[in-house]
Specification:
Blueprint lengths: L1 H23 L3 E7 L6 H16 L4 E6 L10 H6 L5 E3 L25 H10 L2 H9 L4 E7 L7 E2 L13 E4 L3 H8 L3 E4 L5 H6 L5 E2 L4 H6 L8 E3 L9 E6 H6 L2 H35 L3 E3 L3 H18 L3 H16 L5
Parallel strand pairs: 1-2, 1-3, 6-7, 6-8, 9-11
Antiparallel strand pairs: 3-10, 4-10, 5-8, 5-9
Helix pairs in contact: 2-10, 5-12, 6-11
Length: 339
């Protein structure tokens, strides 16, 4: 009897060990596209994110990253993930404003937040995750995290000293509310893919670009052509996202979900802080190379912010857009950053 019991217990223990082995061997394979090239600082940070995720998961999460929108155009990444061509999108929500203007408020409030830390605070402590996934889940996607390089700087072949210089200024614009803001200020925004900017500047199709911050603009080679920029930035502070197809996300083990979410939060902190350092250093280097650096006067900034708040109201035309914008504004008022 004792021998039989021992045999039964050993068999049970072996079965349990087998179950643990199977569970620990669970793999998550993700095909992700980013619009950043490997040479840019953000591209390098994306590679570091992959290294972190691989290490934290013990190799159970395997990521194949497609840089510089090499599979589909940047604005098509979200749909490519939602329909199975890719698994995840590591571009930005504002590319999807054609689906619903609410997507504008999933990444950039264009002058609403003073710095990346305020915007991350809404995500982490102001109900941001739930607010975003209420929208993303409607499109078969799960929002996982943000990374925010900080305020962007414009690049231009003409001076950009104030609002008056935007008159008849042709520039590359991302889709979304920014096109409305700049049209109202007299500019001529042209929506084009992120990786078409350099050629458009070089050939004179555009006078300038709303692309990225100083550091990533350098990585894109924009200041080889455009000798005018502004620093500190003020007009835009987009958050790039990681969003994955809903069924892919739901099928992941809980520990893999946690690793990806925490990995994005770590990326966010590292990305914001390194960009803050690099932008300051690069502002000095660019000035020494003859690039004209413009710091806008308070009265010029006030004109821009007035145009921004008008555009918010004009752009938030759907219930989802009004709800998401309202969430941001309620948070900003709660911390005394807006009246």
């Amino acid at each position: 009897m004792l021998k039989k019991l021992t045999t039964t217990l050993m068999a049970g223990a072996m079965a349990a060990m087998g179950a643990v082995s199977v569970a620990s061997a669970a793999e998550t394979n993700l095909r992700i596209q980013t619009h950043f090239s490997p040479e840019t600082l953000s591209g390098q940070m994306a590679a570091e994110f992959i290294e972190d995720i691989t290490a934290m998961s013990g190799g159970e999460i395997k990521i194949e990253m497609f840089y510089a929108s090499s599979v589909v155009k940047s604005a098509e990444t979200f749909d490519a993930a939602a329909t199975g061509i890719l698994d995840c999108d590591m571009t930005g929500g504002a590319y999807q404003t054609g689906k619903n203007p609410a997507f504008q408020f999933t990444g950039d409030l264009n002058g609403g937040y003073a710095n990346p830390y305020q915007q991350m605070a809404w995500l982490l402590h102001g109900g941001g995750y739930d607010a975003l996934n209420k929208l993303y889940n409607q499109h078969n996607m799960e929002f996982i995290g943000w990374w925010i390089p900080g305020p962007e700087s414009l690049s231009s072949t003409r001076p950009i000293r104030g609002v008056e210089d935007f008159k008849n200024w042709k520039f590359r614009s991302p889709p979304g509310v920014i096109t409305l803001i700049f049209k109202n200020l007299g500019a001529s925004p042209i929506v084009m893919d992120f990786n078409e900017i350099f050629t458009a500047l070089e050939t004179g199709i555009i006078d300038g670009a709303d692309a990225a911050n100083l550091t990533n603009n350098i990585g894109l080679g924009l200041y080889d052509i455009a000798k005018h920029t502004n620093y500190p930035g003020f007009h835009s502070m987009p958050a790039d996202h990681l969003a994955c197809r809903k069924d892919v996300w739901d099928a992941m083990p809980d520990n893999h979900k946690a690793i990806l979410k925490v990995g994005m939060q770590a990326l966010a902190l590292k990305n914001t802080t390194i960009n803050e350092v690099k932008n300051a250093q690069n502002s000095v280097a660019l000035a020494e190379k003859g690039v004209n650096m413009y710091e806008w006067a308070p009265e010029e900034l006030a004109k821009y912010r007035e145009a921004v708040q008008t555009a918010w109201g004009e752009f938030a035309t759907t219930p989802e857009a009004k709800e998401l914008l309202g969430s941001h504004l309620d948070f900003l008022r709660s911390i005394g950053a807006m009246k």
